[in-house]
């Protein structure tokens, strides 16, 4: 071994550098193969003490012993040596004597790598300095430069002073405005003036180091392009700091209009303020103001809409001649989803209607009144001369989605090649129940027919899997990963990997057998029973693949919801008997839980066929199909902070004649179980859990309720995909299912609220929605702070927009009394935030559905003093309920 390799292995970086300095280029190149072998050796135990000791010296030596710019850049940016790597000063010393053009090539290759590759900015900047080349303007370089500049505060001085010393300031600032997601760096610190990025850029523009027109144009273009919230905030601060003159504002009217129409709310508000000032100064043409209003008045932000209506009112008050152009634009707001906006627009039109001179403008305003809600439409009939509502239009027809029909699972792929393609797709992305079960059944069938042919077809798929390594340590890694203890499988791809590992004999039969015999711990998190039932079937299938392959699976569902037709299960048992195949216990248990029992005639017919089989499984199936189905166990409500949760009592039916992993499904469920060593942070398998008990959705919902509460309580994203699955499942839609939907309707993220709305409408379409229960639950959750009213408003507006006005009113008819009772009790105290918006949705739905009657505590809110949103909408709702207005 050479002296260089000894120094590298020992991690003596200084000695390594000294040895490299004394070598010729040819001698360095001769050392490179040994360095590559050492890297390969260390990669097997990357985090071991030997590797961590050697990596800095290896990192430096490998870069110095290559002559190709591409190879050097790849070596420096390698992920396996990123930490702990060599210091930038070491690379600059070793590479500093190379040709400047070669150095420029290296630095530009490094700069083109993503910022996540971790190439140090100090290294790139040093190479630029040595090469004397133009500065790279890639994302990684610009981001590194900005972070470097912001981080030099420890050396004293202002950010402005540091930027003044940058020789390529204009090029880098130009690139800064074009870099995505840079707002977090530009927003560093809270200082103003020369300590902040926006202050520094404004000062550098003022003293001429940055071209003002170019900087303003770049800032405006960046805001028009959009991006993250941090980018909006950062570049808007820059724009404000530049303090545009009135001439500069006039020159960019088209840009402000585009921002006000489509940009993020803070940017749109700023553009709206600029345009408002120009309009009041008489600089903005009325036609341009009308075009702007047509876009802004349909934005969802009520503050922007109200500000625009106020601006239009001021312009109309100053210039009567503007009515023919502006009032038709105001009338377009008659179609806004918010009834408050409609009413404000109607008031504005009524105030200035006499100023209209054009018959066409008047006709346009009157025609637009057809978009108003029933109450405002009746008012517009008298004030604007709009046509009265047709009596036939006053009859409300509730629109609900068609009842979802489950899809029948297609047969498993007939050829091994086709199956291999589907396995590859299923491994690349987590699968739904139908896709996963079909793929699973295909693997079992083909492993039974010809395991060797299946392995051959799977070669291209398996070659990319982590467990297909050829090194000696690979077997140990597989055994370690697929060691079944209290932590189970974490995704459908993980489950498929387990079967493939068994098929390719990468895990021992002993390990698989031990996993099938593992006991279910008594102390489990709330999800544990569902995951253990799923896992036990996967381990059993993997074990049988190695020992006694199954011809096919008994529990493969007939339908996408997880239900299995009883006649189909009997046919499968008949085929097992013909083949002499031994039934797998967990697979048969899952089949029993999936078999459809609600159709008593079909169940009894299948039971007679099953009993005639003369097997233990046939007799067990016959008893299961004809036995009395118990109801849901005793449900008890409990609270945990602001959350409302449920607990279930024992279910003896599931604790008899089932394997241990499935008997656990009948254990009592306590809310305190949820925090017990839970590892189910990965949610892909949760989409499989409703199919474990497809006719007992309450048993699934109670085990997932705490997770679903986190959608509203802790702003968790993504869990709501199970809500439509629960809504489409069978069995009672009880207290827990409705609480789950309530949390989804109050979720933080719009996509989660949309999934909850889907679940709500599916339950309503199936006649399973208990609106009084769900409405009362929502009221209590709002009172406890678990659900924010404005999020619920968004969900209910979405549901009402589909035509489900009666459904939404029936909910709010039980939510609002809870909140209005608090308002009546507290007297003059401020109402819960968002109550006015909830009342507005209720009023619109009551008007359109023709609801009548009294709402408890509504009169007290309507008779309060003032003209707040709560009082205004309470009066409107009371009017709709007492006047009997219909849609």
TrEMBL record:
Residues 432-608 form the DUF7824 domain. It comes from the Bacteria. Pfam families: DUF7824. This is DUF6493 family protein. It comes from Streptomyces andamanensis.
